[in-house]
Amino acid sequence: MIISKSLINIDGEVLIYPNFFSLEESDKLLIDLTNRINWQQDHIKMYGKLIPLPRLTAWYGEPNKYYSYSGISMISQSWIPPLLYIKKRIEELSNIEFNSVLINRYRHGQDSMAWHSDDEPELGKNPIIASVSLGETRRFMLRHKYKKELEKVKIDLTHGSFLLMKGTTQHYWQHQISKTKTIVKERINLTFRIIQNK
Ligand SMILES: O=C(O)CCC(=O)C(=O)O
Ligand SMILES: [Fe+2]
Protein backbone atom coordinates (compact mmCIF):
# COMPACT_ATOMS: atom_id res chain seq x y z
CA MET A 1 0.00 0.00 0.00
CA ILE A 2 1.21 3.52 -0.79
CA ILE A 3 0.90 6.04 2.02
CA SER A 4 0.65 9.78 1.49
CA LYS A 5 0.41 12.60 4.01
CA SER A 6 -2.22 15.30 3.42
CA LEU A 7 -0.99 18.56 1.84
CA ILE A 8 -3.53 20.48 3.93
CA ASN A 9 -3.83 19.85 7.64
CA ILE A 10 -7.20 21.41 8.31
CA ASP A 11 -10.72 21.22 6.80
CA GLY A 12 -10.14 18.45 4.29
CA GLU A 13 -7.63 16.05 2.84
CA VAL A 14 -5.43 16.32 -0.26
CA LEU A 15 -3.12 13.42 -1.03
CA ILE A 16 -0.36 13.32 -3.65
CA TYR A 17 1.28 10.28 -5.29
CA PRO A 18 4.04 11.69 -7.52
CA ASN A 19 5.07 8.75 -9.74
CA PHE A 20 1.81 6.90 -9.73
CA PHE A 21 2.16 5.97 -13.40
CA SER A 22 5.56 4.86 -14.71
CA LEU A 23 7.34 7.07 -17.22
CA GLU A 24 6.65 4.60 -20.06
CA GLU A 25 2.96 4.40 -19.18
CA SER A 26 2.66 8.16 -18.82
CA ASP A 27 4.34 8.83 -22.18
CA LYS A 28 2.03 6.38 -23.91
CA LEU A 29 -1.10 7.72 -22.20
CA LEU A 30 -0.20 11.31 -23.09
CA ILE A 31 0.12 10.49 -26.82
CA ASP A 32 -2.96 8.28 -26.80
CA LEU A 33 -5.17 10.86 -25.09
CA THR A 34 -3.87 13.79 -27.12
CA ASN A 35 -4.85 11.94 -30.30
CA ARG A 36 -8.01 10.16 -29.26
CA ILE A 37 -9.93 12.57 -27.03
CA ASN A 38 -12.58 14.63 -28.75
CA TRP A 39 -11.32 18.04 -27.59
CA GLN A 40 -13.63 21.01 -27.43
CA GLN A 41 -13.20 24.74 -27.14
CA ASP A 42 -15.84 25.93 -24.71
CA HIS A 43 -16.87 29.52 -24.07
CA ILE A 44 -18.18 31.32 -21.03
CA LYS A 45 -20.43 34.31 -21.12
CA MET A 46 -18.96 37.39 -19.47
CA TYR A 47 -20.62 40.81 -19.61
CA GLY A 48 -22.75 39.51 -22.46
CA LYS A 49 -19.75 38.41 -24.50
CA LEU A 50 -18.61 34.88 -25.30
CA ILE A 51 -15.06 34.33 -24.09
CA PRO A 52 -13.13 31.16 -25.02
CA LEU A 53 -11.94 29.17 -21.97
CA PRO A 54 -8.13 29.23 -21.65
CA ARG A 55 -7.85 25.46 -22.27
CA LEU A 56 -9.53 22.67 -24.24
CA THR A 57 -11.94 20.35 -22.45
CA ALA A 58 -13.74 17.03 -22.79
CA TRP A 59 -16.21 15.10 -20.68
CA TYR A 60 -16.36 11.29 -20.64
CA GLY A 61 -18.26 8.79 -18.56
CA GLU A 62 -21.28 6.60 -18.35
CA PRO A 63 -23.65 7.45 -21.19
CA ASN A 64 -25.99 10.40 -20.87
CA LYS A 65 -24.64 11.94 -17.71
CA TYR A 66 -24.98 15.70 -17.71
CA TYR A 67 -22.52 17.90 -16.00
CA SER A 68 -22.51 21.66 -15.73
CA TYR A 69 -19.95 24.14 -14.53
CA SER A 70 -19.58 27.89 -15.04
CA GLY A 71 -22.86 27.82 -16.93
CA ILE A 72 -21.54 25.29 -19.46
CA SER A 73 -23.51 22.09 -19.81
CA MET A 74 -21.77 18.99 -21.11
CA ILE A 75 -23.05 15.55 -22.00
CA SER A 76 -20.68 12.65 -21.50
CA GLN A 77 -19.02 10.74 -24.30
CA SER A 78 -18.50 7.00 -23.85
CA TRP A 79 -15.38 5.66 -22.14
CA ILE A 80 -12.41 4.74 -24.34
CA PRO A 81 -9.69 2.20 -23.37
CA PRO A 82 -6.95 4.58 -22.09
CA LEU A 83 -9.49 6.30 -19.82
CA LEU A 84 -10.73 2.95 -18.52
CA TYR A 85 -7.16 1.93 -17.79
CA ILE A 86 -6.46 5.10 -15.75
CA LYS A 87 -9.81 4.75 -14.00
CA LYS A 88 -9.04 1.16 -12.99
CA ARG A 89 -5.62 2.10 -11.58
CA ILE A 90 -6.89 4.98 -9.46
CA GLU A 91 -9.88 2.96 -8.26
CA GLU A 92 -7.53 0.26 -7.02
CA LEU A 93 -5.64 2.82 -4.96
CA SER A 94 -8.56 4.83 -3.65
CA ASN A 95 -11.12 2.02 -3.26
CA ILE A 96 -13.74 4.24 -4.85
CA GLU A 97 -15.62 3.83 -8.12
CA PHE A 98 -15.79 6.87 -10.39
CA ASN A 99 -18.38 7.32 -13.14
CA SER A 100 -17.10 10.29 -15.09
CA VAL A 101 -14.08 12.39 -15.93
CA LEU A 102 -13.51 16.02 -16.89
CA ILE A 103 -10.39 16.37 -19.03
CA ASN A 104 -8.49 19.63 -19.48
CA ARG A 105 -5.76 20.28 -22.02
CA TYR A 106 -3.41 23.17 -21.25
CA ARG A 107 -1.77 23.89 -24.61
CA HIS A 108 0.83 26.38 -23.31
CA GLY A 109 1.65 28.65 -20.38
CA GLN A 110 -1.25 30.99 -21.09
CA ASP A 111 -3.79 28.19 -20.59
CA SER A 112 -4.97 28.01 -16.99
CA MET A 113 -7.82 27.40 -14.58
CA ALA A 114 -9.02 30.14 -12.24
CA TRP A 115 -9.64 29.71 -8.47
CA HIS A 116 -12.64 27.49 -7.82
CA SER A 117 -13.97 24.62 -5.72
CA ASP A 118 -15.39 21.48 -7.29
CA ASP A 119 -18.65 21.87 -5.41
CA GLU A 120 -21.37 21.51 -8.04
CA PRO A 121 -24.49 19.93 -6.51
CA GLU A 122 -24.29 16.83 -8.75
CA LEU A 123 -20.98 15.92 -7.06
CA GLY A 124 -22.76 15.29 -3.75
CA LYS A 125 -21.99 16.52 -0.24
CA ASN A 126 -18.27 15.79 0.07
CA PRO A 127 -16.99 15.40 -3.49
CA ILE A 128 -14.08 13.03 -4.12
CA ILE A 129 -11.91 14.31 -6.94
CA ALA A 130 -9.17 12.08 -8.36
CA SER A 131 -6.77 14.05 -10.54
CA VAL A 132 -4.18 12.59 -12.91
CA SER A 133 -1.59 14.78 -14.67
CA LEU A 134 0.32 14.00 -17.86
CA GLY A 135 2.84 16.03 -19.81
CA GLU A 136 4.33 19.33 -18.71
CA THR A 137 4.62 20.02 -14.99
CA ARG A 138 2.29 22.82 -13.87
CA ARG A 139 1.86 24.37 -10.43
CA PHE A 140 -1.33 23.57 -8.53
CA MET A 141 -2.30 25.87 -5.67
CA LEU A 142 -4.79 25.61 -2.82
CA ARG A 143 -6.11 28.46 -0.68
CA HIS A 144 -8.50 28.43 2.27
CA LYS A 145 -11.77 30.20 1.51
CA TYR A 146 -12.25 31.74 4.97
CA LYS A 147 -8.99 31.51 6.95
CA LYS A 148 -7.07 34.04 4.91
CA GLU A 149 -4.12 33.89 7.32
CA LEU A 150 -3.30 30.34 6.22
CA GLU A 151 -0.54 30.07 3.65
CA LYS A 152 -1.37 28.93 0.15
CA VAL A 153 -0.32 25.37 -0.59
CA LYS A 154 1.73 24.94 -3.76
CA ILE A 155 2.49 21.67 -5.44
CA ASP A 156 4.01 20.88 -8.82
CA LEU A 157 1.93 18.27 -10.60
CA THR A 158 4.36 16.19 -12.63
CA HIS A 159 3.97 13.73 -15.52
CA GLY A 160 2.25 10.61 -14.15
CA SER A 161 1.26 12.07 -10.80
CA PHE A 162 -2.00 11.42 -8.99
CA LEU A 163 -3.72 13.85 -6.59
CA LEU A 164 -6.74 12.94 -4.49
CA MET A 165 -9.00 15.57 -2.85
CA LYS A 166 -11.58 14.35 -0.37
CA GLY A 167 -13.54 14.97 2.84
CA THR A 168 -14.58 18.59 3.30
CA THR A 169 -11.84 19.99 1.01
CA GLN A 170 -14.27 21.47 -1.55
CA HIS A 171 -16.25 23.30 1.18
CA TYR A 172 -13.24 25.10 2.62
CA TRP A 173 -10.59 25.26 -0.09
CA GLN A 174 -10.25 26.55 -3.62
CA HIS A 175 -7.64 25.47 -6.15
CA GLN A 176 -6.17 26.82 -9.38
CA ILE A 177 -3.64 26.33 -12.16
CA SER A 178 -2.13 29.74 -12.85
CA LYS A 179 -0.68 31.01 -16.11
CA THR A 180 3.09 31.06 -16.53
CA LYS A 181 5.29 33.29 -18.67
CA THR A 182 7.88 30.58 -19.22
CA ILE A 183 7.57 28.47 -22.33
CA VAL A 184 5.94 25.19 -21.44
CA LYS A 185 4.71 22.23 -23.42
CA GLU A 186 1.26 20.70 -23.30
CA ARG A 187 -0.30 19.21 -20.19
CA ILE A 188 -3.37 17.04 -19.87
CA ASN A 189 -5.22 16.76 -16.57
CA LEU A 190 -8.01 14.31 -15.85
CA THR A 191 -10.31 14.76 -12.86
CA PHE A 192 -12.36 11.65 -12.18
CA ARG A 193 -15.60 12.36 -10.34
CA ILE A 194 -18.75 10.71 -9.06
CA ILE A 195 -21.87 12.27 -10.54
CA GLN A 196 -24.91 11.43 -8.46
CA ASN A 197 -28.12 10.57 -10.22
CA LYS A 198 -30.86 13.10 -9.80
O1 LIG B 1 -5.56 20.90 -14.08
C1 LIG B 1 -5.64 20.68 -12.88
O2 LIG B 1 -4.74 20.14 -12.24
C2 LIG B 1 -6.87 21.09 -12.13
C3 LIG B 1 -8.15 20.82 -12.85
C4 LIG B 1 -9.34 21.18 -12.02
O3 LIG B 1 -9.24 21.80 -11.00
C5 LIG B 1 -10.68 20.77 -12.45
O4 LIG B 1 -10.82 20.14 -13.52
O5 LIG B 1 -11.63 21.05 -11.73
FE1 LIG C 1 -11.07 21.67 -9.85
From TrEMBL:
Signal peptide: none annotated. This is Alkylated DNA repair protein. It comes from the Bacteria. SUPFAM superfamilies: Clavaminate synthase-like (SSF51197). GO terms for biological process: DNA alkylation repair. Its cofactor is Fe(2+). Keywords: Dioxygenase, DNA damage, DNA repair, Iron, Magnesium, Metal-binding, Oxidoreductase. GO terms for molecular function: catalytic activity, acting on DNA; demethylase activity; dioxygenase activity; hydrolase activity; metal ion binding; oxidoreductase activity, acting on paired donors, with incorporation or reduction of molecular oxygen. InterPro entries: AlkB-like, AlkB-like_sf, ALKBH3, Oxoglu/Fe-dep_dioxygenase_dom. PANTHER family: ALPHA-KETOGLUTARATE-DEPENDENT DIOXYGENASE ALKB HOMOLOG 3 (PTHR31212). It comes from Aphanothece sacrum FPU1. It holds the Pfam family 2OG-FeII_Oxy_2. Residues 97-196 form the Fe2OG dioxygenase domain.
